[in-house]
Design a protein that fits this description.
A hairpin with a 5-residue loop joins strand 14 and strand 15. This protein is elongated. The strands form three sheets. A six-stranded mixed β-barrel has the order 2-6-3-5-4-7. The N and C termini lie far apart (139 Å). It is built from six helices and 16 strands. It is α+β, with helices and mostly antiparallel strands. The longest helix has 26 residues.
C-alpha cells in the first residue's frame, strides 16, 4: 500500500466521522420544524422532507396569535361546548324510555304552568277497571272509567296543590308517564284527592292499566289540565246540577256533575229583575256551592250560569224552588236556555 492511498483512506474516514455527529443529533432529537424524528429514520431524507413541508405551508401560515387571542379562542370553544352540553346532555332523550319504571323515587310533586310533574300511581283494580265511586268530589256512583285523584299538597301539609278544597273536581288532566316502551298517555277526570304526601296524580284502574300494564307501581309522569269536552271515558252521564240530600227551603247546596271542566263560578240572575247572586263555594264540604235563602224561598225563574276553567259557559233556566228539592238532578238538556 503506498502512502498516498493510505492518506486518502485516512482522510475519508476522518471526514465521515465528523459528518456523522450532526446527523446523529437530528435522528435522536427534534427535527428542524419541531416534529420528532423516529430513530433509525434516514436523516437526510427527514431534513429534505421537513424543509419541503415548511416551504409548502409557509404561504398559508396565519400571523401568530397573541396569548390573549388564544385565551379568547379557547374560552369561546369551552363556552360553545358547555352550551351544547347543557342544551342536550350526553345520553339524554325525550323518548320516555326507562328501566325500573315502576320504582320512581317518592318526592314532592313540582308545579309547572297549567300542570305538574312527579309521581304517577294507581288505586283500584287494573284488571276489573271499575268505574269511579265519586271520591272526595262527592259525585256518588258514576259511569266514569277514566278518573284520578290529584295532589292536595306540594310539600306535606301546605295545601298548595291543585286540589284547592275541591275546586279541581270535574276537571280533566292529560297525564303521560315514562315506561319501558316510552311515554304513554291518558286523559282522566278528577273525582278524588290524593291520600299520600308524595302523590302527584293517582290513577283509577282503567287509565292505570293503559299506562302501567300489569306492572303497577310509582312512575315518573307529567300532567297538564285540559278541557273534558270531546274526551271519551270521562263522561258518566249528561251535564246536570245536582242538589245535595237534606236540602229544603231553608238550606241547600249544589254541584255540577259531568261538567265540561272544573267549575270556577256559578251565578244566578233574575229573569224578571236585575238582581244577581254569585254563589259561594262551600268550605269543608268539597265540591259544593251554597244557594242563598232568598232563591230557595222564591218561585221566580233564574238564569243559572256556570263558568268553567276552560271552554264556554253553560246556562240553565230554573225556578228557585227547584234547588230546594233533595237529590234533584237538573239536566242541562232539559233546562237549557232557548
Amino acid at each position: 500500500m503506498n502512502s498516498k492511498s493510505s492518506f486518502s483512506r485516512l482522510f475519508a474516514a476522518v471526514l465521515a466521522g465528523a459528518l456523522a455527529v450532526p446527523f446523529a443529533f437530528v435522528a435522536c432529537g427534534d427535527s428542524p420544524n419541531g416534529l420528532p424524528v423516529a430513530e433509525g429514520e434516514d436523516s437526510s431524507s427527514s431534513q429534505e422532507s421537513s424543509s419541503s413541508e415548511m416551504l409548502a405551508s409557509s404561504s398559508s401560515v396565519k400571523p401568530a396569535e397573541s396569548s390573549s387571542d388564544r385565551a379568547l379562542s379557547s374560552s369561546s370553544s369551552e363556552k360553545s361546548a358547555q352550551s351544547s352540553s347543557s342544551a342536550k346532555p350526553a345520553g339524554s332523550s325525550d323518548s320516555g324510555v326507562c328501566t325500573s319504571c315502576d320504582s320512581y323515587t317518592a318526592a314532592d310533586p313540582i308545579l309547572v304552568e297549567n300542570g305538574g310533574k312527579g309521581s304517577v300511581t294507581t288505586y283500584g283494580s287494573i284488571t276489573a277497571k271499575e268505574t269511579s265511586l265519586g271520591g272526595a268530589c262527592n259525585y256518588g256512583q258514576t259511569n266514569i272509567q277514566y278518573y284520578a285523584a290529584i295532589h292536595v299538597n306540594v310539600s306535606p301539609g301546605d295545601d298548595k296543590g291543585p286540589w284547592d278544597g275541591g275546586m279541581a273536581c270535574g276537571g280533566c288532566v292529560h297525564v303521560k308517564a315514562k315506561t319501558p316502551d316510552g311515554w304513554k298517555e291518558v286523559t282522566v277526570r278528577i273525582t278524588d284527592r290524593c291520600p299520600d304526601a308524595d302523590c302527584g296524580v293517582d290513577l283509577g284502574g282503567a287509565p292505570a292499566s293503559d299506562i302501567m300494564g300489569i306492572q303497577v307501581g310509582r312512575y315518573y309522569g307529567e300532567w297538564e289540565f285540559v278541557s273534558c269536552e270531546g274526551v271519551e271515558g270521562v263522561w258518566g252521564d249528561s251535564t246536570s246540577i245536582w242538589v245535595k240530600e237534606g236540602a229544603s227551603k231553608f238550606w241547600s247546596i249544589i254541584q255540577v256533575r259531568n261538567p265540561k271542566d272544573a267549575v270556577r263560578k256559578i251565578v244566578f240572575n233574575e229573569l224578571d229583575g236585575d238582581k244577581t247572586y254569585p254563589l259561594e263555594f262551600v268550605v269543608g264540604t268539597e265540591n259544593f256551592w251554597t244557594v242563598p235563602l232568598e232563591i230557595l224561598q222564591s218561585e221566580k225563574s233564574y238564569s243559572v250560569v256556570v263558568t268553567y276553567r276552560t271552554g264556554t259557559d253553560d246556562e240553565w233556566i230554573l225556578k228557585g224552588s227547584d234547588l230546594a228539592v233533595p237529590e234533584a238532578n237538573l239536566y242541562l238538556y232539559e233546562h237549557r236556555k232557548e
